[in-house]
Amino acid sequence: MTTSTGYLLGHDEKELARLEHQAAVLAPATRTVLRLAGIEPGMRVLDLGSGAGDVAFEAAALVGPGGSVVGVDASVKALRLAAVRAERRELTNVTFIHDDLHTVRIEDEFDAVVGRLILLYTPDPVEILRKFAALVRPGGVVAVMEYEMTAGGGLPQTDLCLRVITWICEAFRRSGLDPSLGARLGAVLRGAGLTPTVLGLQGYLEPGDAAGPRLGAETVRTLLPVIEKTGIATADEVGIDTLESRIAGEIAREGVMFKPPTLVGAWARIA
Ligand SMILES: C[S@@+](CC[C@H](N)C(=O)[O-])C[C@H]1O[C@@H](n2cnc3c(N)ncnc32)[C@H](O)[C@@H]1O
């Protein structure tokens, strides 16, 4: 289940499609964090753990044609998709570097370093932030985003939504990853010598919105090998092929809102 970089989620086609879908759900919160952090026209931005490129594209929209974005990711598959998507968007100011964050050597100076859902997968987020914050000019910006996963589920909570969020959080915990890293981002930035502002953004999807059930079921699908292997639930208990429709049915029947995990943004200016 883990790749050579130790990355839990892998990069098969379903997972890359899940990343794109998740990014669409997270787009408004992401744009808000990047704006509040001070990403502006003309800036040169470095995006850590670009994946399929969604944060790089959000940043590119904010920096405009006078700025540029460089994305780094350890997955060739994800970067191939990111490059195709950049071309489709006719973005000529977004480029990608294939490398691991721990070993990549970047000498350039940036106006901003950003990253979403990447620190979670690094064994020492403080060290990663320290390394890349050193590339930001004085007055520039560091802005990162991570989930507070335990906040996800139904409102009010339903049996199945609760089981889904529990399976997901437990799969991360049993893989040695903190599902509430978002809530700790302030301490992570402070550990890297920065003085952060931290804000959680909570999405609310209406009962008829298919995005919530899809996000929940796809995430469980990606994590299913860990869920089974670590004894969190059996394949029969999960019933992956009908999970999305069961979640949708339950939230429609009970008229509940679906809460994706809270996206927590933390940002700081470089002194
Ligand atoms: C959950 S995805 C997030 C992608 C993107 N930032 C987003 O929010 O849509 C995490 C990405 O981090 C990358 N990644 C994980 N560990 C990495 C490392 N040590 N160096 C570079 N990339 C890494 C993975 O390949 C994956 O594409």
Low-pLDDT parts are none
The assigned structural class equals alpha/beta
Q: How far is the first residue's CA from the last residue's CA?
A: 40 Å
Strand arrangement, major sheet: 3-2-1-4-5-9-7
Count of discrete domains: 1
How many β-strand stretches?
Answer: 9
List SSEs in N-to-C order. Answer: HEHEHEEHEEHHEHHHEE
- Overall mean confidence score, pLDDT: 94
Oligomer: single chain
Shape: globular
Q: Fraction of residues in helices?
A: 40-55%
Strand content: 15-25%
The radius of gyration computed from the alpha-carbon positions, rounded to a whole number of angstroms, is 18 Å
CATH topology: Rossmann fold
Ligand set: S-adenosylmethionine
At the first level of CATH, the class is Alpha Beta
Largest sheet: 7 strands, mixed
Brief overview:
With 271 residues, the protein is α/β, with parallel strands linked by helices. It has helices spanning 13-37, 54-63, 76-88, 125-133, 159-174, 185-191, 211-229, 235-238, 240-254, and strands at residues 44-48, 68-73, 94-98, 110-116, 136-148, 153-155, 197-201, 257-259, 262-269. Strands 3-2-1-4-5-9-7 form a seven-stranded mixed beta sheet, with helices on both faces. It has a two-stranded antiparallel ribbon with strand order 6-8.
